[in-house]
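From the pipeline queue, job 12 of 40. The input is one protein chain; the requested action is below.

Action: predict structure.
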Amino acid sequence: MEEERYILKERRNKLEAIRNAGIDPYPSKAERTNTNADALKNFEKLLEKELVLVGRIMTFRKHGKLTFAQIEDGTGKIQIAFKENVLGDKKYKFLKNFDSGDYIQASGKLFTTKKGEKTLEVKECKILAKSLLPLPEKWHGLKDEEKRYRHRYLELLMSSDLKK
């Protein structure tokens, strides 16, 4: 319970930092050129085109001057990459205000990583909705059976098997 309060406090601080930067953390409009599934399906055709994708951040991994995230939009998941030299120092540092569960809009071009993962190289990024509560743990999901029944949306969010 204490850990949840700490997480909530941290996320509220990040929300305040977003607002202090003059950014609306809950804008009324978003743009999208392709769904995630469409971007993956037509990957070869879209390689040289500028895409705008939206989705909920499911995972967020920082590796020095490179940060990977996986976003999900209801049609599928796609990896996105934030590179400090592409975004610029100020925008890259602003990523510290993003968490898993946040909805974002990311624009850029597709590429394939060294490991063969189809990825969007982000040139511009915009927050669409700041999540104040963390997502359930990725590997174990919801263990509390009562919580699973009362908060069905959480289990549907985390389990792709239940979506089918």
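Job complete. Residues 136-164 form one domain.
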